[in-house]
Design brief:
- By secondary structure, the chain is mainly alpha-helical.
- It has helices at about 5, 20-45, 50-80, 85-115, 130-140, 145-155, 160-175, 190-195, 200-220, 220-240, 250-255, 260-270, 270-285, 310-325, 325-330, 370-390, 405, 410-425, 430-460, 470-485, 505, 515-530, 535-545, 550-560, 570-585, and strands spanning about 175-180, 185-190, 340, 350-355, 365-370.
- The protein has three domains: about 15-160, Butyryl-CoA Dehydrogenase, subunit A, domain 3 (Up-down Bundle), CATH 1.20.140.70; about 175-300 and about 445-505, Neurolysin, domain 3 (Orthogonal Bundle), CATH 1.10.1370.20; about 310-440 and about 520-550.
- The chain contains 25 helices and five strands.
- The chain has a three-stranded mixed sheet with strand order 3-5-4.
- Strand 1 and strand 2 form a beta hairpin.
- It starts with a helix and ends with a helix.
Length: about 600
């Protein structure tokens, strides 16, 4: 179904909010370049000797540069996301990335010099709002390169990892194929092909999914080379900076230790049997002798439920409003020119929320397909939007939350939605459908993302021996997925190419475990909400409003009182999944 044509009320964003025309962009670019040059001339090689008041003034000037660049970047990248096949959008985003590299290269000295101030400014009352940022810079100082190398690396990335990343996006942005199905001749994009996994027609699911994966595999030379170069670049960067563990740069960025991440991954792996138990329950209920991974997201009913966008919108807003009235008002505002929802050809696959600066309201991007999972995705991305809008109270260096807490509002919002839909469901079948969808979301976010992380670890380690053949990536992918599925789910043969279309592998190496971390954290947060009721709300909203102003450990501890370093924390989250399974079994 073409939701854009059949449901004209579905909103699209209005990027003129950012810039009404090219002339405004040009003026801002000129201001930005002048401000960056002035900042460099005023502070380069002088940062360590600044007084507290002088450094505060420098932060304010840095903020103006940051916010202008963020607005320009948002405008370019959102235009590209809206239509990745548009040559003008491709040119705009390419020129914007060149501008970003130029500006960052000019002002990179500031962070490098701040890192060398050690504890000079850490006890300053005047600079208290920037203390945590300075602490993190000082911690990273031993991994920094010279200013010249840092600046050169940013510029060189334009023809290196950034170029490969852009090529990957363009390949899948324009990816489409036609095939005959039992519905007739159809055209599929990546988004609609993956949406077929939610079809009630098993033959249709297999036919479309296996065709999609096979076509991905036909691009193995290009996709294999892209991934090899991304991995090799990451290895070279780690070696140059002195990182012993390839995941350490991401863990430091996420402000968590290597040990805590590994502990979390091992705990999740110990719970794979919970996912397998769920798959067996669903397989028995659906009467499937051999459940495959093309069946795990299939609806329980043979009739496909079509949810209008208006119904989805109202339900999502109600779910947030029932938790907090102001939260409901915040998410409802996205539907006024700050969300691009329709499914259309050329549009970037997937969903995201883009909020690059505390001066800019966030934008939400998704492809609405009318099924229950699409409604959950809407709630998820609006949760990100809520998080961004609340954290705008922080300065430009503290507002952006680390990846491991970035899913806090989005996953919590999904749970609120699922509980509301469960309460409103008029039959046992509908209640089961909601519980199954919720469980599948948790499995995809907790267990599958751990599988993806284990695959990445093996892929990156193998690159140490030289270029990795695409078929070797396939073997790693198959083996790690087999650990999750066990004998409960049979993988379709073309799924060997499932690694090749995962964007996080390309854009942000070792990103995926943050989803597992975030989902488990939210399960514990929701358990606290059930325990404390409205008394929980203020602490939770404080957590969202704090952005990235402290470490994840301190943010969670100081707002809601949970201890991320407690060894039993992750096991508690898995026990909640066990309770969900019991809830399903009781209904059955």
């Amino acid at each position: 179904m073409n939701h854009e044509q059949n449901q004209p009320e579905i909103p699209v964003w209005d990027l003129s909010i950012l810039y009404k025309g090219q002339e405004e962009r040009i003026k801002d670019i000129e201001k930005l370049k002048n401000a960056a040059l002035e900042f460099q001339n005023q502070y380069r090689k002088k940062t360590v000797d600044l007084t507290e008041k002088e450094l505060l003034e420098a932060f304010h000037k840095h903020e103006k540069i940051y916010n202008t660049l963020a607005r320009l970047s948002a405008h370019a990248h959102l235009q590209f996301a809206a239509d990745t096949s548009d040559p003008k959008a491709q040119s705009l985003v390419a020129s914007q990335e060149e501008l970003s590299a130029e500006i960052h290269a000019q002002i990179v000295f500031f962070d490098l010099e701040l890192a060398r101030t050690k504890d000079k400014f850490l006890n300053s009352e005047i600079l208290k709002d920037y203390r945590y940022h300075i602490e993190r810079l000082v911690l990273m100082e031993k991994y920094n390169l010279s200013e010249e190398l840092e600046a050169y690396g940013m510029e060189k990335n334009l023809t290196g990892v950034q170029a490969f990343s852009n090529l990957f996006d363009e390949i899948f942005g324009q990816f489409k194929f036609r095939m005959k199905t039992n519905c007739g001749e159809e055209t599929f994009t990546e988004e609609t092909a993956l949406a077929s996994l939610h079809s009630p027609d098993r033959d249709y699911r297999h036919q479309v999914y296996e065709k999609f994966l096979s076509l991905v595999g036909e691009n193995k030379i290009v996709l294999g080379n892209i991934y090899n170069n991304i991995i090799f670049d990451h290895r070279l960067d780690c070696k140059r900076r002195g990182f012993q563990n390839l995941m350490t740069p991401r863990n430091l960025s996420n402000q968590v230790s290597d040990e805590s991440v590994e502990s979390m991954l091992e705990t999740v792996e110990s719970g794979y049997h919970l996912a397998q138990k769920y798959f067996r329950i669903k397989s028995d209920l659906m009467g499937l002798r051999n459940m495959t991974n093309a069946d795990i997201y299939a609806p329980l009913s043979s009739e496909k439920e079509e949810i209008s966008f208006q119904e989805a919108k109202e339900t999502v807003i109600e779910s947030y409003s029932s938790f907090d009235e102001d939260a409901g008002k915040i998410v409802s505002k996205f539907f006024n020119k700050r969300a691009d929802i329709p499914l259309r050809e050329g549009k970037r696959p997937g969903a995201f929320c883009y909020g690059p600066s505390p001066q800019i309201d966030a934008f939400v991007h998704m492809n609405y397909t009318g099924d229950i999972r699409s409604v959950q995705t809407l709630a998820h991305e609006l949760g990100h939007g809520l998080h961004h809008q609340l954290s705008k109270s922080q300065n430009h260096l503290n507002f952006d939350t680390p990846l491991v807490t970035a899913e806090t509002a989005s996953v919590f919002g999904e749970i609120l939605l699922n509980e509301l839909m469960f309460e409103n469901a008029s039959s046992k079948e509908k209640k089961l459908s909601i519980l199954f969808s919720q469980m599948e979301g948790v499995i995809a976010t907790v267990f599958r993302q751990t599988v993806l992380t284990r695959f990445e670890q093996r892929a990156h380690a193998a690159r140490d021996e030289g270029k990795v053949q695409p078929e070797t990536f396939c073997d790693f992918w198959w083996e790690e997925n087999k650990k999750l599925y066990g004998d409960a789910v049979k993988m379709v043969e073309p799924y060997r190419w499932g690694w090749a279309y995962i964007p996080h592998f390309i854009h942000t190496p070792f990103y995926c475990y943050a989803y597992s971390f975030g989902q488990l954290l939210v399960l514990s947060l929701y358990a606290e909400y059930l325990k404390k009721g409205t008394a929980f709300k203020s602490g939770y909203l404080k957590l969202l409003s704090s952005g990235g102003s402290e470490s994840p450990e301190n943010l969670v501890k100081n707002s809601v009182g949970l201890n991320l370093n407690d060894p039993s924390f992750w096991k508690l989250s898995l026990s909640i999944l066990e309770e969900n399974l019991k809830r399903i079994e009781s209904l059955l």
